[in-house]
Amino acid sequence: MVAVITPLCDAGMGIPTVTAARILKGQLSGHSGEETQLEMDKFPYVSLSKTYNTDAQVADSAGTATAYLCGVKANEGTVGVSAAAVRSQCNTTFGNEVTSILKWAKDAGKSVGIVTTTRVNHATPSAAYAHCVDRDWFSDAEMPVEAVQAGCKDIAQQLFENIPNINVIMGGGRKYMFPKNTSDVEYPGEHKHMGTRKDGRNLVEEWKERVKDLRGHYVWNRKDLLALNPNNVDYLLGLFEPGDLPYSLERNTETDPSLTEMVDVAIRILRKNPQGFYLLVEGGRIDHGHHEGKAKQALHEAVEMDRAIGRAGLMTSPYDTLTVVTADHSHVFNFGGYTPRGNSITGLAPMVSDVDQKPFTAILYGNGPGYKIVNGVRENVSTIDYNQNNYQAQSAVPLRMETHGGEDVAVFSKGPMAHLLHGVKEQNYIPHVMAYAACIGQNTRHCVSAVSQATGPSAALPGVLAALLSLTPLLC
Ligand SMILES: [Zn+2]
């Protein structure tokens, strides 16, 4: 049985983020940090992934998710369609749909799941099941009327209709599933959290009705999630927030599960299938922390993603499970400044600038909301609390939202065929390796011949290769 765990991301986990998260993880345990090993550091194979989109040097998460889930590079802003589709032009959808490794796994009889800390209809997860020329068409309320009339479908609707009965769906995004103005169960009466759907459909009720005789369960809070016995659950829909889940530093531990808890439950449900499983896991808010210039939030998200990778590792075996951890793209985040060993990762460089004579933090952004000029000069960071959770690290250029970065991202892998992920590769190569290892998708001739030539126990192959576990830390 081959299991593939691919951490993908709309998470924006570039290599500087990986290194800084490693140091933070160690420092949270009372060590100096640099010598610490992340769970992903323990993987035996590492490769670099070229993240550009067909029409963009610096990628977005929609085009990159299409690459590492569907196996073809795509235009930015589009999910589950080839580069022949044009962003926001509904009529270019039809005939240009491409399918994902999640669908290939489902078609092969495996159980499949999606776990994310963002909305379940956000860019990364949506490339696993949707075909949409605009990543922002979360529900029909976000779509132009002409697109709806032309037959294009919103992403929430596609989640429940394109690939019937995805076994596990967990994340945020509740409001996109309910009719417009429906009060939210967790935030009753709060207008911004109310349902958005103009078509009046209640996608959660429709889902519950469909799986009511199939051991299906819908939950919207952590307590109900952890009360489930995964042995008695074959289908799970968990929607824990109207939008994205909160940052892990701000998580309400009563109502919101951690990423690690969601992964734990997902694997317990999925691994019951003797044919194996595929799981996509996204630590999607690493990306959001960076966009806001809040490096501490982003790094704590990355540490939590690593904890989830560790949990998945305890629950699976590298003998039958391929696990791939990567990012969709990087960010213009970095750290430097000749800091001494053990320096707090959110701390200051040991000297002042020899130009403006002011201190500076080790972490800085190339652009973003942290650009601060006070009385015509760069802000003196020693006058403010640069250790607080929402401190916005200084940037060279002012932008409301920090941008993605264009350099390659790392791909960490372990398990069957993990050695194929080495060297510098195009991002869309990744799902082809996973499919090859699991004997799913279009290219399975090597599996048939291996089986027919099998003469002994060493020929443990395709039928036995089953579980595809995809953990995706989002670095987008
Ligand atoms: Zn992003």
UniProtKB/TrEMBL annotation:
Entry cofactors: Mg(2+); Zn(2+)
SUPFAM superfamilies, per database record: Alkaline phosphatase-like (SSF53649)
Domain of life: Eukaryota
Membrane topology: Lipid-anchor; GPI-anchor
Enzyme nomenclature, EC number: 3.1.3.1
Keyword Repeat carried by entry: no
Catalytic residues identified in the record: S61
Keywords tagged on the record: Cell membrane, Glycoprotein, GPI-anchor, Hydrolase, Lipoprotein, Magnesium, Membrane, Metal-binding, Zinc
Note on cofactor: Binds 1 Mg(2+) ion.
Main location per the UniProt record: membrane
GO terms of molecular function: alkaline phosphatase activity; metal ion binding
Location in or out of the cell: Cell membrane
Record-listed Zn(2+) binding positions: D287, H291, D328, H329, H404
Name of the top EC class for this enzyme: hydrolase
Cellular component, GO annotation: plasma membrane; side of membrane
Gene3D superfamilies named in the record: Alkaline Phosphatase, subunit A
Quaternary structure and partners: Homodimer.
Protein family according to the UniProt entry: Belongs to the alkaline phosphatase family.
Name of the protein in question: Alkaline phosphatase
